[in-house]
Amino acid sequence: MATTSRQQDPPTPPLNPLTHLLNQDVGDFDDEPSSDGQLFPGQRHSIIDEKMVIRYYGDPTKTPHLLDGDAPETGTSSPHIDVTLLCDVTNGCGGKIWPAAEVLGAYLTGRREDLAIRWKGKKVIELGSGTGLVGFVLAKMGIGAETWITDQDAMMELMQKNLELNPGMDPCFVEELNWGEPLPSSVPQKPDVLLLADCVYLEVAFQPLVDTMIDLSTTETEILFCYQKRRKADKRFFTILKKHFHFDDVKDDDPVRTEQYNRQGTRLYRMKLKG
To answer: Which amino acid positions bind S-adenosyl-L-methionine, per UniProt (predicted)?
Structure first.
């Protein structure tokens, strides 16, 4: 059963969604606009209340793609995973599918057998969930983990709708969590796993995001962090991050797929809090 927490403190100023839509060159961080490098073609920045079905495969050599029509009935033992999402950017840029979420979701499904052993019974929090895609992928894998998808208040309604569109998952909860603020009691204070996809976009949010990652982490917390390069300013985020976390590229993804998304400017890191 999903819950949506509401903070009583005065809200922080909303992150400007338009900044995230200024999609800039992923190769050399210059200031010219360029393509998303998305795996899924045809997705528009102006999406309003549009439903789509994304299919992920357990075979890491197969590329995830959009299906026509509604998702067919599948169980947790299926070789593929279908996630139904409403996408809507009315309340912010998180309401569409971003490249790093596509990549992280594909990595999780490709490591399904391994994660079924290592993450069974674990508590997982996704930060900056947006549509909830990554968290729903994990919950639909049926590995026995509990997942919390979190974001700002503006995304709660969309994430709740998407939760209702994806029945039959492992326990999955929708919660409000604002970076840089005290952690709500409705989420695990020290989860076993943190998932982050495309959370680096506004400079004003760099330090609050790192602060929240520190608050949620121990030196044993496993962190998967997927990121697409967009601006020179993003380097400042990693300068802040490396003061507190060890990180390196994930080594166990399919090499052909890794080369593809690296070429598009997307990186997938495994992180640990420094002792």
So the answer is: 98, 128-130, 151, 179, 197
Whether residue 151 is annotated as binding a ligand: the answer is yes
Q: Which ranges of the chain does DSSP label H, i.e. alpha helix?
A: 17-20, 99-110, 112-118, 133-140, 156-164, 206-216, 234-241, 255-263
Q: Is 129 annotated as a binding residue?
A: yes
Domain ranges of the chain: 17-273
Q: Could you tell me which residues come within 8 angstroms of residue 118 by beta carbon, excluding any fewer than 6 positions away?
A: none
pLDDT of the residue at 95 = 60
Provide the pLDDT for residue 110.
Answer: 94
| Predicted confidence (pLDDT) per residue in 107-163, tens digit | 999 999 999 999 999 999 999 999 999 999 999 999 999 999 999 999 999 999 999
Instruction: Characterize 104-121 residue by residue with b for buried, 16 or more Cβ atoms within 10 angstroms of its Cβ, and e for exposed.
Output: bbbbbbbbbeebeeebee
Percent of the chain residues topping a pLDDT of 90: 63
128 is known to lie in a ligand binding site:
yes
**130 labeled part of a ligand binding site:** yes
The count of residues in the chain is 275
Checking DSSP bridges between strand 80-87 and strand 50-57, what pairing results, if any? antiparallel
Cα separation, 79 vs 130, whole angstroms: 26
Question: Residue 119, annotated ligand binder?
Answer: no
What digits encode the pLDDT tens for the residues 242-271? Answer: 999 999 999 999 999 999 999 999 999 999
